[in-house]
Amino acid sequence: VGEKLAVMQDSLTKQISGIVQSHVSPSPAFPMNTPIPLPTEIEMIRPSAPSPGPGQASVSSVGSSTFGSGRRTVAQSLDESSPKIRSATFNAYPLDPRKLASGNVVDALVDILSHFDLVALQGIRSDRDDIMPFLVDSLARIGRRYDYLIGPRTGPDMATEQFAFLFDTGKVETDRYQLYTVDDPEKLMTYDPLVAWFRCKDTLADQAFTFSIINLKVNPQTANTEQSYLPNLIHAVVHDGRQEDDVIVVGDFAGDVGQISGLQQQSIRIALRDTPNDTLGTAALSSILFSAKGTVEYTGKSGTLDFLRKMNLSIEQATAVSHQLPVWTEFLATEGSEPGRIAPTNGGEAL
Hints:
Deoxyribonuclease I, Chain A; 7 helices; 351 residues; eight-stranded mixed beta sheet; alpha+beta
């Protein structure tokens, strides 16, 4: 696996015109959208040469294909001293100016976020554009250097949200040319998923673990319908033309992901299932899943960060931070690494 080349703007804009005629499905589809413009002052990976842009992809409401064959070459065996990244998903709804006006809540959020190298955030609710810069600045005050990617506002007019990725710049890097939303003109899902690409930094670039990551949220009011579209959504991103064999799916699934029809396949590894991750400890809502064969970098370690107990908070104090706990999983930083040297767990580890 060599170093991934950035996707150039001119090839990406070809996607705006829609699905190539030969690939059009008669069923409702999710055509891939153009990348999202972000602040130019944030550093990006510059391509050394142009590469073909992503192919066209569509997701219909019929079918259940998900991850590909995931054939991989094991690069080397690693042990506990090998570099790793800890990735998390966190629905902090509502992550808004009112919540960030509380110093105690901000301190708790900074503590929570600093445990992870990459966090997929859902539930950003604001007409302003300073939520993520505020979090980055707050983390900088404790000596941590983070950056972010953020998507457009999506969802119903009176309940729009944004999804974002917050990442430790010393641990992973990204390519903003490979950031996009999955457009949904048929409104098969309430919130358009956000897709990004990352590469680990604690190893040589041509040996680094690279992956695409889908950040999504299922609307609880239409959970059964939206959950039924997830296999085809995953299939579309896996086959979006970037030839990235590692695809990680994170977010709020509005239920135990292990019970979702179409995701109960041997080709899919669910990092955390049957483990409550709401603040009250009553429901399994968020999770992380990936290709069982393709993503061999998974160390077998995953769990929730129970900040209520870790910070000795009352239920009222904890729900002021979030009604959900972050769900996390750990990956080795080297592409194609053999995880067998690290003892796997059954999930549900606490930080």
